[in-house]
Design goal:
The complex is a heterotrimer of chains A (about 350), B (about 210) and C (about 625). Chain A has about 350 residues and is α+β, with helices and mostly antiparallel strands. In chain A, about 35% of the residues lie in helices and about 15% in strands. In chain A, α2 (about 35-70) packs antiparallel against α4 (about 90-115), α6 (about 265-275) crosses α9 (about 345-355) and α7 packs across α9. Chain A starts with a helix and ends in a 6-residue tail after the last helix. Classes of the chains: A alpha+beta (about 350), B mainly alpha (about 210), C mainly alpha (about 625). The interface between B and C is large, with 38 and 42 residues. Chain B: It holds the Pfam family COX3.
Chain lengths: ~350, ~210, ~625
């Protein structure tokens, strides 16, 4: 009877917490409104621990306040010398055992989930033709931008991760320069990208990002990596499996696509002269780029991961990238000018139009 | 008992290093300092083990090819013997035999110097082979671990020398007895660390 | 020689403080230095909060923000909280155990000067080309990448001040082991002394890994080492391990003495002995021990694998058990007591719920899979500020009120103190409570700005308002301290309910502390004597006789100064950042080291026997201090 009552109390507490917590944050960014299996389990753990811990705080505070109110000197009398109690073994045992039990209640799901989230055995599974069955994305974090390579599909993109819903997506995480950390709060917890080894984990995307405010989930770098750490955002587009397959195909079709120096389009020619050395315009292949791959630039939601995706902003960016992302590698070593030199306004205008037009979805 | 008390071998206490409160504090404090040194070396050992044989792609050095056990063994013997001679020195310190103590300390000093010379030769030899400090993570970790020990040996030698010179005219008293005792303790500690270096770096490097 | 002559010139007073080996004067110096750095780091925090007050703010630049966050963390932990706690440890430990000074007065002074000059060196970076900017954790890949001299300042400054901390820790351990008065058994030691002992032991085992880590970093940056260069076979995770093997115990190094301070305040103002003294001692030791077993919980997302994560998760949760024991014992101390709500007690009141709130979020983060979400977000920022501000800063403020009469023979103003408490306390919760939610809403830590439309604007604004209130609270506290100069002498046992030896000594405390070494008959010796009607407050273990005291010495200052000078040489040497080297660097390095080693050899070669204070001199000093027959 008592046990049932306690459980019920805990449950009602959880419900209250749930209502309170779910009022917080944006759906595309908040860990409190997860859109994936991993994030949901983590939220459950959060609610469980918050419930138990709130109970602890409340119990302690109530006893404490009670003691405080009851035994004020003004109440017990100015000259009273209280009994000098040494201690109590029974009480010591009680407040040792109860916390241990509470911690065990937390420890069991914690250990289970730790092993579960680290299980990436399926990454190596192959079908009868020897093709990998699971979708794997190689994530490389570089100073203030993200590169996403799909080794089994032979395609590569940057800044905007595209994934299918409803299946486990496996990630190989690595950093190219300094340590970063890969985090999509609304989907699940983070994992560091180290410089010396590859970390592996998986995430599940339950919901298509189409209906979200910007049509994407927000991704963040969670490890201090230099001046522009705060600006090292990326976006995640989750598509239905069919739409994802279509996207993969159109990416593969960009094979060999390049910009021509002799082109009559001033934008393309300028791009070929000034940008192509670092930025590829073909999404096919697996060669890592010096700068973000721009094949899908026109489909993206943001410029440089965080700026508005407009031609105006793009022009300003090309003119002086360091103003927006301090410390980024588009500048000369002395930081005075971009590595591609100072382009004329006309060239910049044409370049912006050209880059905005790069797309596989339109 | 006071610092200015004059002693004879008969009145000299059994444990002169702990006869004064300052002496007692010094001995306790030094043991605690050694505990702290243990952690220091443990960190260096852990780093070394993590970086053992690690280097840039195609590195041509490894523990098996590099280390020569006979040399390391000779160094071990020198240092172990010096530990023994420092025990004799402290034995004579407790017997209030200043001269004998100084003699044994001098022998300890020479043995330590011999060890240091061999170590310098060893490093020189490796650098000559191209195994420099900056050659790889392995070389950096090796020189740091063994070099830190070597620096401790050097410091110990300077310490012994200073003590011997400063007290040459003063002779033994309750003020400097703890100083000798603590220096000898330090010397034993260096010896123990070397035994671990010999085992972990050289033996396990060549055999393991 | 002795410091009982009155009316000294200013120069003589300065010289007196530079050369002093008296633990009480060093305590005052620790207090002043710690407050200075606390103020600097607090100001840095305010600048950061102003920058984050609204989205897309451009109050300070990205690079400078990183310098601020690095220096705020580094300063608060190494150069503010540590010395402030050392101030209390220095002042109280010898008095509580009935000793005339610490075991190594010379080393005590050396520890202070190393800490102080190392700290000054680190702060000069602001004026010499930029402060360190890789976070107080200074993770290796970023700190090796970081241009300029910032990280070199961090490495050298922390190395020097770290030696100081290590030396002081060693000193406290020996003091507590060997210098206790007759009858002061281990299980009769006041709990603050116990926590000082355990915390010093933690310093002893935690600082060497940091020293090693800093040396490795120094070698990589200056001598072409390859510890952290993965292209040469190095591994940056080694830094993470070494740093956190130090870094996690560091938290307990700070919080245990804070527990100890509250364990003195709460019984005093409850007029009741500490409930479950022996289990409190046991819990202290257990926390210290477990503190070394859990460092990898800072690295759950580093990719150590599920087994390591699971083990460290469970081990971390285990710490909640002894901490819980402490909390309940405090509550049971109050229960059945006679509580007087003074300012220190008010801080103790605020401490328990705040600290418990910080503790339970700690358990949440110990849950490894959940920590994948919480790690490096604002949630962790909220968590450790709840522990550090709610636990340590409340202890420091409360104890400043509580022990001010021991330090300066003056009381702080109670009314202003209570106002300060409320302003600071409300500001604190306002600042950090909402940060839990910012973290859960996806805000990473250490960001210099954030975009609009992510739902973070309001909470960040609230947080900044709270930070401003905390700032006001600190200013009120400092004003209170300054005003106390004008207040009348407080005299012995001004709170009326003192329990331990430090309250039994007549005020002002003579430089030799105890005319005669006291005899301790149980826990809370002063309380026992008072209950038995002993007006003297103590009974003595020896007749009045000569006292042996240590000589003052300028050598600790000179040794530290040598290292301070040498550090500039090392920093600007061609070994470091080659394009920013100076020709004077190598000579300066050599001169600095010569000064240090020269001073050490002088110390070693000269006999220093201390001096004896004769019976007549003692009586004369006491007559000066307390008047004839102790009535003044």
């Amino acid at each position: 009877m008592m046990k049932g009552l306690k459980k019920w109390r805990l449950f009602s507490l959880l419900t209250v917490m749930m209502v309170f917590l779910s009022g917080c944050g944006e759906e595309y960014l908040s860990t409190l409104k997860p859109s994936g299996e991993v994030g949901k389990e983590q939220l459950n753990l959060l609610l469980l621990t918050t419930g138990i811990m709130t109970l602890v705080v409340v119990v302690v505070s109530v006893i404490y306040l009670l003691a405080f109110v009851k035994f004020r000197r003004s109440k017990v009398g100015e000259n009273v010398i209280p009994k000098q109690v040494e201690g109590s073994h029974t009480l010591e045992i009680i407040w040792t055992v109860i916390p241990i039990i509470l911690l065990l209640i937390i420890a069991v799901p914690v250990v289970t989930a730790t092993y579960k989230f680290a299980d990436v055995a399926a990454m190596d599974e192959v079908d009868e033709n020897g093709n990998k069955t699971a979708l794997t994305v190689n994530v490389t974090a570089k100073l203030y931008w993200w590169e996403f390579e799909y080794p089994n599909q032979g395609i590569i993109t940057a800044q905007e991760l595209v994934v299918p819903t409803g299946e486990k997506v496996y990630f190989n995480l690595k950093a190219a320069d300094v340590k970063h950390s890969f985090w999509i709060p609304a989907i699940g917890g983070k994992m560091d990208t180290n410089v010396e080894n590859v970390n592996k984990f998986y995430l599940v995307f339950d919901k298509e990002s189409e209906g979200l405010k910007d049509g994407v989930f927000y991704g963040k770098c969670a490890e201090l990596c230099g001046p522009s750490h705060a600006l090292m955002d990326f976006k995640v587009k989750s598509l239905s499996p069919d739409a994802f397959d279509a996207w993969v195909t159109s990416m593969q079709e960009t094979e060999g696509q390049t910009a021509d120096k002799e082109s009559s389009d001033l934008g393309e020619a300028t791009f070929a002269n000034s940008c192509l050395g670092c930025h590829a315009v073909s999404g096919s292949g697996s060669a890592p780029g010096m700068g973000p791959n721009l094949t899908t630039y026109g489909d993206r939601n943001r410029l440089a991961g965080f700026l508005d995706h407009t031609e105006e902003d793009l022009k300003a960016w090309i003119k002086d990238p360091a103003e927006f992302k301090p410390g980024n590698l588009m500048m000369n070593a002395d930081g005075t000018a971009p590595i591609y030199g100072n382009l004329s306004d006309e060239e910049i205008q044409a370049l912006a139009t050209y880059i905005m037009g790069l797309s596989v979805e339109k | 008992m006071d610092y200015n008390t004059k002693f004879t071998p008969h009145t000299w206490p059994d444990h002169p290093e702990q006869a004064t409160m300052e002496g007692k504090n010094k001995v306790v404090g030094f043991w605690i300092f050694l505990a702290c040194e243990v952690v220091l070396f443990a960190s260096l050992f852990a780093t070394y083990l993590a970086l053992k044989n690690k280097g840039p792609a195609g590195m041509e050095f490894s523990t098996q090819e590099l280390f020569e056990l006979p040399l390391a063994f000779a160094m071990t013997m020198l240092l172990l013997t010096s530990s023994l001679t420092s025990v004799y020195a402290i034995y004579h310190m407790r017997n209030f035999n200043f001269k004998a103590m100084q003699t044994w300390l001098a022998i300890t000093l020479l043995l330590g110097l011999g060890f240091l010379c061999l170590e310098i030769y060893e490093f020189y030899h490796y650098v000559h082979l191209g195994f420099t400090f900056s050659q790889s993570a392995f070389s950096t970790a090796f020189y740091t671990l063994v070099g830190t020990h070597g620096a401790h040996v050097t410091l110990g030698l300077i310490w012994f020398t200073t003590l011997m010179i400063r007290n040459a005219k003063r002779g033994l008293n309750l003020y400097n007895a703890p100083k000798f005792f603590v220096a000898a303790l330090y010397w034993h500690f260096i010896d123990v660390v070397w035994v671990f270096i010999f085992t972990v770096v050289y033996l396990m490097g060549v055999i393991g | 020689m002795s410091s009982h002559t009155q009316k000294k010139s200013f120069g003589a007073s300065v010289w007196d403080y530079i050369t002093t080996v008296d633990h009480k004067k060093l305590a005052v110096m620790y207090l002043l230095a710690g407050t200075l750095f606390f103020a600097i780091a607090g100001f840095e925090a305010l600048l950061m909060r102003i920058q984050l007050m609204k989205p897309n703010n451009d109050f300070i630049s990205a690079g400078f923000f990183n310098e601020l966050l690095t220096m705020h963390g580094t300063t608060m932990l190494f150069l503010a909280a540590t010395p402030l706690l050392f101030a209390f440890m220095n002042m109280l430990v010898p008095l509580q155990i009935g000793a005339r000074d610490v075991a190594f007065p010379f080393l005590n002074s050396l520890g202070f000067w190393l800490f102080f000059l190392g700290a000054v060196f680190l702060h000069l970076s602001f004026f010499m080309g930029g402060a360190p900017d890789a976070g107080w954790t200074s993770y290796a890949s970023l700190s090796l990448y970081s241009p300029g001299h910032g990280i070199d300042f961090y490495v050298l400054g922390l190395q020097i001040s770290g030696f100081g901390t290590l030396i002081s820790g060693l000193n406290f351990i020996v003091t507590i082991i060997t210098m206790r008065a007759p009858g002061m058994t281990f299980m009769r030691m006041p709990l603050f002394t116990w926590t000082a002992l355990v915390s010093s032991a933690l310093i002893l085992f935690a600082f060497p890994p940091l020293t090693v880590g800093l040396v490795l970093m120094l070698f990589d940056r200056m001598f072409g080492g390859n510890f952290f260069d993965h292209t040469m076979g190095g591994n940056t995770v080694i830094w993470e391990h070494l740093f956190w093997i130090f870094g996690h115990p560091e938290v307990y190094i700070l919080v245990l003495p804070a527990f100890g301070l509250f364990s003195e305040i709460i019984p005093t103002f409850s007029r009741k002995r500490l409930f479950g003294y022996s289990s409190m001692v046991f819990a202290t030791i257990l926390i210290g021990f477990l503190g070394f077993m859990v460092w990898a919980h800072h690295m759950f997302t580093t990719g150590l694998g599920p087994t390591a994560n699971a083990i460290f998760a469970v081990a971390t949760m285990a710490i909640a058990v002894p901490t819980g024991m402490k909390v309940f014992n405090w509550i049971l101390t109050i229960w059945g007591g006679s509580i007087k709500v003074t300012t220190p007690m008010l801080y103790a009141l605020g401490f328990i719920p705040s600290f418990v709130a910080g503790g339970v979020t700690g358990v949440m983060q110990a849950s490894a899979p959940l920590d994948y979400q919480l790690h490096d977000s604002y949630f962790i920022v909220a968590h450790f500020h709840y522990v550090i501000v709610g636990g340590i800063v409340t202890a420091l403020f409360g104890s400043a009120h509580f022990y001010w009469p021991i330090f300066f023979n003056r009381m702080l103003d109670e009314k202003l103190g209570k106002w300060t408490f409320w302003v600071f306390f409300i500001g604190f919760h306002l600042t950090f409570f909402v940060q839990h939610f910012l973290g859960l809403m996806g805000m990473p830590r250490r960001v210099f700005t954030y975009m609009e439309g992510q739902g973070w604007d309001q909470f960040n604004y609230i947080s900044t308002v709270g930070a401003a209130m905390m700032g006001v609270g600190v200013v009120m506290m400092v004003i209170n301290c300054l005003l106390s100069i004008k207040r009348p002498p407080a005299g012995r046992d001004p709170w009326g309910d003192g329990r331990t030896l430090e309250w039994a000594i007549p005020q002002p405390i003579p430089f030799y502390n105890f005319r005669q070494t006291p005899l301790v008959r149980g826990l809370d010796p002063y309380w026992i004597e008072k209950q038995e009607g002993n007006k003297e407050g103590m009974i003595y273990a020896e007749p009045l006789g000569d006292i042996h005291m240590p000589n003052n010495s300028a050598l600790p200052f000179v040794i530290s100064l040598g290292l301070f000078i040498a550090a500039f040489g090392a920093l600007y040497s061609p070994l470091g950042v080659a394009e920013d080297s100076r020709t004077w660097a190598i000579p300066v390095l050599i001169i600095g080291l010569l000064i240090t080693f020269g001073a050490m050899i002088v110390r070693s070669v000269k006999d220093d026997h201390g001096f004896h204070l004769h019976k007549e001199e003692i009586l004369e000093i006491e007559e000066q201090l307390y008047g004839k027959g102790g009535k003044k």
